[in-house]
Design a protein that fits this description.
The protein is of the alpha/beta class and 485 residues long. The chain has helices at 21-41, 55-70, 96-115, 131-140, 156-166, 211-215, 223-235, 261-269, 289-297, 314-319, 326-339, 358-371, 398-421; strands at 46-51, 74-75, 86-91, 120-125, 146-148, 170-172, 193-197, 199-200, 219-220, 240-244, 276-280, 304-306, 344-351, 375-380, 427-435, 442-447, 452-456, 465-473, 477-482. α1 crosses α5 (156-166) and α11 runs parallel beside α12. The structure holds 5'-deoxyadenosine (5AD) and iron/sulfur cluster. Iron/sulfur cluster (SF4) binds at residues 53-54, 56-57, 92-94, 125-126, 211, 214-215.
């Protein structure tokens, strides 16, 4: 899609009504205005995108940056000292902390805009789907030029055009998605790996989670569209893809011709030139035998499963609306470890869900000790207005939650360090991702099981898969040595 030629688009008539043609039209229109500004200022116009939250948001940001570059902006990163002409925050609202960070940044942006009044400030993403947030921004941060939601990503050019031509702030929040718009420009962060959306939204309604309210009902992309996109990426040099969805295990159930996630994986596996397949996130309630079998025999699916536990207490899991209990989860995790012994299992855990007793918490610790996660993300429960859990009685006092959180973290870290030790001395295939942040004589790569390893190397290795011997475990990463072929 990066090859779209805006010069061929007729911008003299009315905008087309069909997508993506309508957006190409607005991209061409915006490009005319931006090139005019570039001529006036006699310098490039700079854009910067800042992303909070998960892989879904990271993927959306690549789409947004793709559009910004098409219309004539030059991308700069956070490390650049130049002030951007267009700054876009792609926000997350899964926990309150994520929201607070955005408000903090807005305070800073206010000053930046006073110095640089031409600057455009845009906010999008999950947080913008909440009415109270939009009200607060309108009232307290009126200098924000553009606000749009998770269903409006594809419309960025149209919204910028409206802002530039009407000079009024633009707020556009669709409450539900129309069709999935394919074939938009995209600016990939890495040349050799890429996320690929396979579905949007979530229908699970876990009682603590705001995602179904901000990302909407579950919609799967057609397998042919997914395969076409991956083939194009591979032709463009991508060797690793990450299939993205809030709950990939329920992929394809609502398609006209239903396809299981395991079957989709088999189709993706057949793509020549693709070396590695990852996916995120799996819900334990829908993880099928078929998926385990497909992973087991696959040469390309990475040896990593992220299987959010959330809580080890059957009683809490019930009020969380997770549709599995402690025993069922343990049986599933043990089966996966048995069938795919080299798999690394990671998880998400929430501490302090309403009504959580010490006994419930001990159940969580018990699962952690039995499953021995290779790594775990631990979160303090955050009350999200509008979710069923926010209305539950028995919210747990802060000191109790903090104490449990610290105990859990200690356990998780100890186990994770012990798990990492097991692989020292062995050799693994590693996809080299980057020059090491702290020492430029080293490169950083990722193993199939998602662990990272640092070793001597240079730029020419980036994007290649090489064999690396793990010399030393450092908690959650390794130091290693590349082996000659
Ligand atoms: N409070 C704390 N953690 C949450 N998560 C989702 N909602 C909340 C909440 N209200 C965590 C879950 C999920 C991860 C992405 O974020 O563990 O798996
Ligand atoms: Fe991702 Fe959830 Fe945050 Fe939205 S709210 S960006 S889906 S983590």
């Amino acid at each position: 899609m990066n090859e779209i030629n805006l010069d061929l688009i007729d911008t003299t008539g009315e905008p087309p009504v069909t997508e993506p043609e309508r957006q190409y039209y607005y991209m061409a229109k915006c490009r005319e205005i931006i090139s005019e500004k570039i001529r006036e200022k006699q310098r490039p116009l700079y854009c910067q995108t800042r992303t909070f939250g998960c892989q879904m948001n990271a993927k959306d940001s690549e789409k947004l940056t793709g559009i910004l570059k098409q219309i004539g902006y030059t991308e700069i990163t956070q490390e650049d000292t130049i002030e951007p002409d267009f700054i876009l925050y792609n926000t997350c609202t899964v926990r309150e902390n994520a929201n607070l960070k955005v408000y903090g940044h807005l305070g800073y942006l206010k000053k930046q805009k006073q110095r640089h009044p031409d600057m455009l400030i845009a906010l999008c993403g999950c947080m913008m789907q909440e009415e109270t947030v939009v009200e607060k921004i309108k009232k307290s941060y009126p200098f924000v030029d553009l606000i749009f939601g998770t269903y409006n990503i594809y419309q960025l050019a149209e919204l910028i055009y409206e802002r530039l031509t009407t000079k009024k702030n633009v707020i556009e929040i669709l409450q539900a998605s129309k069709d999935i718009v394919e074939e938009l420009p995209i600016e990939r962060k890495f040349s050799f790996k890429s996320g690929v959306n396979i579905m949007f939204g979530c229908d699970n309604y876990c009682s603590y989670c705001i995602v179904p309210y901000v990302r909407g009902r579950e919609r799967s992309r057609k397998p042919e569209d997914i395969i076409k996109e991956i083939k194009k990426l591979v032709a463009d040099g991508v060797v690793e893809i990450m299939l993205l969805g809030q709950n990939v295990n329920s992929y394809g159930k609502n398609l006209e011709q239903p396809v299981s996630f395991a079957r989709l994986l088999e189709m993706v596996e057949e793509i020549d030139g693709l070396e590695r397949i990852r996916f995120m996130t799996s819900h334990p309630k829908d993880l099928s035998e078929e998926l385990i079998a497909v992973m087991k025999k696959s040469k390309k699916i990475c040896r990593h499963l992220h299987l959010p536990l959330q809580s080890g207490s059957s009683h809490i899991l019930k009020t969380m609306n997770r549709h599995y209990d402690k025993e069922k989860y343990i049986a599933l995790a043990e089966k996966i470890r048995r069938e795919i012994p080299d798999v690394s299992l990671t998880t998400d855990i929430i501490v302090g869900f309403p009504g959580e007793t010490e006994e419930d918490f001990l159940d969580t610790l018990d699962v952690v000790k039995r499953i021995r996660y290779d790594s775990a993300y631990t979160f303090i429960y955050s009350k999200r207005t509008g979710t069923p859990a926010a209305r539950m009685a028995n919210q747990v006092p802060e000191e109790v939650v903090k104490d449990r959180f610290n105990r859990l973290l200690k356990e998780v870290q100890t186990i994770s360090a012990e798990q990492t030790m097991k692989n020292v001395g062995k050799t693994f295939e590693v996809l080299v991702e980057d020059i090491n942040e702290h020492d430029s004589s080293l490169v950083t790569g990722r193993m199939s099981n998602n662990s990272t390893v640092h070793f001597k190397g240079n730029q020419s290795l980036i994007g290649k898969i090489v064999n690396v011997r793990l010399d030393e475990a450092k908690g959650f990463y390794y130091m290693g040595t590349m082996e000659e072929e």
